[in-house]
Amino acid sequence: MSDRPVIGITGPDRGGYAAWAMTALAVLRAGGTPRRIRPGYSYQESALDGLIIGGGTDVDPLHYGEEPPAKSQMAFSWKDWLVSLALFPLRILFARHSAGDYDPDRDALEKQLISHALYAGKPLLGICRGAQLLNVTLGGSLHQSIEHFYSEGTGNPRSVLPAKTVMLAENSTLATVLSTRRCRVNALHEQSIKELGGDVIVSAREASGVIQAIELSYANFVIGVQWHPEYMPQSIRQQGLFRHLVYTARAGQSS
Q: What's this model's pTM, rounded to 2 decimal places?
């Protein structure tokens, strides 16, 4: 048996190459072997020692009993258009391609993988969409827009650079992993966790009240973060998420 645990990394069938490459690099640096998983090319669940549910397309709100927002009700200011233009290269990087606004095949695959990981006691890291889907899979819901959390003067900062400060819950697994109670993170999400799923606890928030990270109360390493640690390779602290994931996966190999 290899001492490099196999870590599955999920993504869309089309696009997502930059996110895959950066996440795979983080897993390699942490001592693991990355395996790309997509709806059109899945991977044997039992062969995975750990799992990363990546970012991307919004989770279909039908999974938590809500309807998609009516597009005719969505208003955009000139600031929104400027931000969208500035983030256009990042949207290419994150490649939110699907047949529509959602990706039902990916939703189904990742919900199955999450359920398997939780049942088998395997470590799991949810990134942005991944954190949201983890919560939804466990019976929680999402804010389909988080703009109401911010004043008109500040708005929701969106940047691949560390643009937000988050406060970590005392005695949380996340605080132990990151060895801090406060850190700067990047932010590209427009949705967030609303009602918590079963056994889900909040492990980080930002000052506006938006939930920035969750974890399971009974698991050694089941964590979801709204930010993208794979896009912070320069941060030893953030790369600790991947190191602890691989370490927990390796410990599971020998048990």
A: 0.87
